[in-house]
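In the design runs reported in the main text, the only information available to the sequence generator was the tokenized backbone. The following block is the verbatim input for one such run; it is reproduced so that readers can re-run the procedure and compare outputs position by position.
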């Protein structure tokens, strides 16, 4: 390969309207595993270590422009076709040499291996143009790749322009292509719009290359990787594919998923070894799970770090800013937000702990609520080491429970509690002897 990484320029086409998504959000900004579709494409593009990435977008797509920064943007004022889109990108590309790899913003499934193999094989072919194809189970809608006797791509024919015989071809273009920057610059200028759709098609390039006595290389990849999304239904299919990959990676790295199809990962979930995940668990963005953790069924976890050997759930909710230190335990119907739970501490049932720091070996009883919000501001609760909070306690922040403190069950605690003290804040129990018996007898007489 004459091209080193520094000669690789990647162009991502993303100016299409995506009308069929019926959305105010640009098509490529719809998330898959919590990351916009185009984010997946950029991630894979970056893994090839290119010299630069240029995204072609329409002037109105501010969401795409904001997301893509600091990568380069090439604006395509009117969506006149994929050939015109590449022309816009090449105009903004300063470099005059090297290889240009073209990807689509709505094609998030290509792997690094597929793309780098394609680039390597293209370089070996010494051609100036290369197309990545696939054998489509159902070719309808794709551009068909026509080969000549030398196995060079002589043409790519769009569905609308294909003859009955061409429609039978199952070798289809994925939308991924590459070419020599200098040749592409010349050749995109020669693309016309004389086709049924009246668009400037990228698929016109093999014919233009042939006119310039240049053969066109092609390679094939698994059809699965070429899937894109034009509709919400297709978006859901892509989500499933990405989830399957993430589940596979988690298992390969040593996690056990009891029912993989019901575990939903975020693109960035980090999972250690010997982690056990029960069915129906959802991971939002920015979660790290340490070795030997056990996540029980029906838990929802986002923005949380779980150190080694923590146990969570069933039915737990961990919100952003949660940190569970080694061996901490969260039980059923417990919600934590912006809270650190110290080593070996337990919050086992029906509790909300927000904006708090809990030390080591503390126990927060069932039904405890930290009242962290006064309608205007959030306040902090600090709970020391070895603290015991009795069930059904209300902790009104800002508040500190010092090391070794006890809170009697059912208390409403609004003042700090000293080290090793017992705080009791509830009405004292009184008893009326025989009251219940006489009450029952009175009621019986009346009926
Ligand atoms: C394209 C190919 C087809 C191939 C298929 C694979 C052409 C003419 N056809 O068809 O051979 O089998 O991909 O999916 O290329 N875009 C722009 N500006 C435009 C038009 C499109 O940036 O003016 C972008 C879109 O945002 C999209 C990509 O280019 O990311 C592909 O465009 P699309 O209209 O979806 O082409 P297909 O009909 O899929
Ligand atoms: Mg498409």
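Verbatim output:
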């Amino acid at each position: 390969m004459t091209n080193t990484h520094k000669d690789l320029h990647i162009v991502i086409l993303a100016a299409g309207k995506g009308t069929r998504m019926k959305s105010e959000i640009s098509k490529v900004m719809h998330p898959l595993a919590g990351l916009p579709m185009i984010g997946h494409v950029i991630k894979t593009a970056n893994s090839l270590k290119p010299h630069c990435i240029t995204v072609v977008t329409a002037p109105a797509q501010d969401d795409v422009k904001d997301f893509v920064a600091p990568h380069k943007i090439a604006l395509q004022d009117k969506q006149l076709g994929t050939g015109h889109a590449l022309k816009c990108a090449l105009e903004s590309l300063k470099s005059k040499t090297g290889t240009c790899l073209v990807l689509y913003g709505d094609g998030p499934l290509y792997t690094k291996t597929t793309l780098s193999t394609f680039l390597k094989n293209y370089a070996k072919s010494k051609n100036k143009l290369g197309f990545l194809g696939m054998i489509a189970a159902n070719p309808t809608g794709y551009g068909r790749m026509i080969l000549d006797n030398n196995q060079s791509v002589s043409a790519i024919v769009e569905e609308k322009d294909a003859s009955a015989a061409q429609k039978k071809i199952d070798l289809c273009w994925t939308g991924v292509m590459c070419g020599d920057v200098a040749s592409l610059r010349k050749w995109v200028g020669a693309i016309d719009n004389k086709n049924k759709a009246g668009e400037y098609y990228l698929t016109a390039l093999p014919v233009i290359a042939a006119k310039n006595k240049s053969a066109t290389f092609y390679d094939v990849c698994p059809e699965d990787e070429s899937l894109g999304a034009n509709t919400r239904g297709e978006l859901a299919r892509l989500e499933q594919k990405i989830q399957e990959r993430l589940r596979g990676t988690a298992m390969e790295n040593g996690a056990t998923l009891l029912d993989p199809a019901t575990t939903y990962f975020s693109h960035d979930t980090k999972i250690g070894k010997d982690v056990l995940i029960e069915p129906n668990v959802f991971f939002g963005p920015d979660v790290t799970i340490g070795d030997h953790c056990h996540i029980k069924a029906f838990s929802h976890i986002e923005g949380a770090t779980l150190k080694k050997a923590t146990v969570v759930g069933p039915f737990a909710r961990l919100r952003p800013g949660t940190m569970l230190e080694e061996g901490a335990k969260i039980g059923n119907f417990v919600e934590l937000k912006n809270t650190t739970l110290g080593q070996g501490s337990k919050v086992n049932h029906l509790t909300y702990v927000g904006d708090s720091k809990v030390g080591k070996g503390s126990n927060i009883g069932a039904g405890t609520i930290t009242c962290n919000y006064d309608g205007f501001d959030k306040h902090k609760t600090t709970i020391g080491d070895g603290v015991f909070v009795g069930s059904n306690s209300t902790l009104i922040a800002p508040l500190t429970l010092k090391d070794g403190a006890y809170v009697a069950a059912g208390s409403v605690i609004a003042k700090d509690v000293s080290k090793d003290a017992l705080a009791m804040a509830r009405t004292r129990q009184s008893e009326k002897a025989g009251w219940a018996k006489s009450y029952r007898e009175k009621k019986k007489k009346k009926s």
